[in-house]
């Protein structure tokens, strides 16, 4: 029986991937050292049917990003699976053109990311970053200068309403009774309402939300969407939180909005460059709480996303279409390629 070969570069996010894959005799795992030459890495990947791809774009060397140039060198590749829900290093259109399935692990780390987002909301409203900065600077005197606010009674605006956004809505409604506004052009009002939100347009969300939290993927449509004009359209004193992807929000414009007081405080887990340079102005702003794209880096989330990734490869190895396909339009071309490789078409 021909085994389904899966290559990964450097490391896996959690040993659960290897443990789960080891239970399926149809899978063969190929570890490709990060320190190997680019030529050696691509040569190893060229024999693989699957590529388990780092989700954070700055962790993976550019020549190993799943774009047209690399795909042209991987004649056997049938499926690329991102480590997480995001798939920044992968180009869906290039995958489709090459007849390659692109799969992510959407939902696998939703709890970890949602809890992180809500935690940042609370920290910003209670002015924890500013309090810490004052104590470190030795200027902490009058506590009244750090008068905070409570989450209860606030309007929470969510841009994007996938697995994470829905879990955030569930948490803030159950724990704090918040009104939740949702901007997601791909969902209808009934679907959003079923998960506790109110569908509104982007402008309405910005104008009415006390807290704006970003939960959409980075796409050509969302790149730079939270720009100077968007910050200006928000309520004065808004709390801004993002656990989505860097490049959706304009970092320089956010700094200006914090300086002017238009944005009262910000919780930032994602950055244009990760990690950001140590002299990044936002890292040193007293009203910013920062983390290094770690919202989903929990024991539970990583164990889950790696397990479901391994199971997705197992599904394909068994001749069944995997879940969470990012580019479903590839299916006709993919089925032709899979049939040529394994002698029969996949089911589903």
UniProtKB/TrEMBL annotation:
It holds the Pfam family 2-Hacid_dh. Keywords: Oxidoreductase. This is NAD(P)-dependent oxidoreductase. SUPFAM superfamilies: Formate/glycerate dehydrogenase catalytic domain-like, NAD(P)-binding Rossmann-fold domains. The keyword GTP-binding does not apply. It comes from the Bacteria. Residues 118-295 form the D-isomer specific 2-hydroxyacid dehydrogenase NAD-binding domain. It comes from Sediminicoccus rosea. InterPro entries: D-isomer_2_OHA_DH_cat_dom (IPR006139), D-isomer_DH_CS (IPR029753), D-isomer_DH_NAD-bd (IPR006140), NAD(P)-bd_dom_sf (IPR036291). PROSITE patterns: D_2_HYDROXYACID_DH_2. Residues 29-327 form the D-isomer specific 2-hydroxyacid dehydrogenase catalytic domain. The keyword Protein biosynthesis does not apply.
């Amino acid at each position: 029986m021909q085994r389904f070969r899966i290559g990964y570069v450097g490391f896996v996010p959690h040993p659960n991937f290897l443990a789960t894959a080891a239970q399926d005799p149809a899978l063969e795992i190929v570890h490709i050292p990060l320190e190997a030459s680019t030529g050696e890495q691509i040569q190893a990947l060229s024999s693989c049917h699957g590529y388990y791809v780092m989700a954070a774009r700055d962790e993976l060397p550019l020549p190993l990003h799943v774009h047209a140039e690399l795909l042209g060198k991987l004649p056997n590749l049938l499926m690329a699976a991102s480590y997480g829900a995001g798939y920044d290093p992968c180009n869906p259109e290039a995958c489709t053109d090459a007849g390659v399935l692109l799969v992510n692990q959407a939902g696998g780390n939703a709890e970890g990311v949602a809890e992180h987002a809500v935690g940042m909301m609370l920290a910003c409203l209670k002015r924890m970053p500013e309090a810490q900065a004052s104590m470190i600077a030795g200027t902490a005197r009058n506590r009244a200068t750090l008068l905070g606010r409570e989450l209860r009674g606030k309007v929470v605006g969510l841009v994007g309403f996938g697995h994470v956004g829905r879990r955030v809505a569930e948490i803030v409604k159950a724990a704090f009774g918040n009104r939740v506004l949702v901007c997601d052009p791909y969902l209808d009002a009934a679907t959003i309402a079923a998960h506790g939100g109110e569908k509104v347009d982007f402008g309405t969300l910005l104008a009415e939300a006390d807290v704006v939290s970003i939960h959409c993927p980075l796409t050509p449509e969302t790149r730079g969407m939270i720009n100077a004009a968007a910050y200006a359209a928000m309520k004065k004193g808004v709390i801004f939180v993002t656990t989505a992807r860097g490049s959706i929000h304009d970092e320089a414009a956010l700094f200006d909005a914090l300086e002017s007081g238009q944005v009262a405080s910000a919780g930032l887990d994602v950055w244009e460059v990760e990690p950001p340079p140590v002299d990044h102005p936002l890292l040193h702003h007293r009203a910013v709480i920062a983390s290094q794209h770690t919202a989903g880096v929990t024991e539970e989330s990583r164990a889950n996303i790696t397990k479901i990734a391994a199971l997705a490869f197992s599904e394909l190895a068994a001749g069944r279409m995997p879940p969470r396909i990012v580019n479903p339009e590839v299916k006709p071309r993919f089925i032709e390629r899979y049939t040529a490789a394994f002698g029969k078409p996949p089911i589903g």
